[in-house]
Amino acid sequence: MKKLFAEFFGTYWLVFGGCGSALFAAGIPELGIGFTGVSLAFGLTVLTMAYAVGHISGGHFNPAVSFGLWAGGRFDIKDLIPYVIAQCSGAITAAATLFFIASGKAGFAIDNTKAGAFASNGYGSFSPDGFSMASAFTVEFVLTMFFLLIILGATDKLANGKFAGVAIGLALTLIHLISIPITNTSVNPARSTSQALFTQGEPLLQLWLFWLAPILGAIVAGIIYKNLLQKNDSE
């Protein structure tokens, strides 16, 4: 249960910090943090929670990461579904907190006809810069694949584990710098689900892509690392 609570709180912090920065701080006139600030916020949430609770649960905070670590032989399949449930629960609870806070401002309403409403992900007319479904799928697949390669490499028994959290947090920052204009950046099905549930409409109908592409990318990364990159004891 401690592992599941760690995943719950870690994913809560990721969504609260990352999506919260997008909702409340990105567009403040003259003082807004913009895409760069939001990218950094997502990276910092993972970095800080990796050191806070990573030693308890492994610090996944993302269903795609759990699938990727399983494919790479680093995670027991019996823990997969409990982890995903804990991650999604943490993300949805964080989104509910963000919705409650946002509701405290006069005139607040989620316009689910606009791209990025309530920090949701999307493609086509719901992509921040109008990218197609194929572009969205490709970027989510590729970026999640490399994210898992970085995670698997940084946490390898031969790597310097003390700096794993830094590498992973910076990787997530870079991922957001690349893909916010394309999909508003997911690479995390739990993060996408939490925002889509409150946004409803087309972002909820497009949610399938933000489960399928990241999980496939993560599984491919796990297979690649296990078979092509990971050193065996005999090597």
TrEMBL record:
Lipoprotein as UniProt keyword: no
NCBIfam families xref list: MIP, PRK05420.1
Keyword presence, Transport: yes
MF-aspect GO terms: water channel activity
Localization per Swiss-Prot or TrEMBL: Cell membrane
Entry's family note: Belongs to the MIP/aquaporin (TC 1.A.8) family.
Stored PROSITE patterns: MIP, PROKAR_LIPOPROTEIN
The entry's keywords: Cell inner membrane, Cell membrane, Membrane, Repeat, Transmembrane, Transmembrane helix, Transport
Protein name: Aquaporin Z
Topology term for the membrane: Multi-pass membrane protein
Cellular component, GO annotation: plasma membrane
TM regions (residue ranges): 12-28, 34-53, 80-102, 131-151, 163-184, 204-225
Top-rank lineage group of the source organism: Bacteria
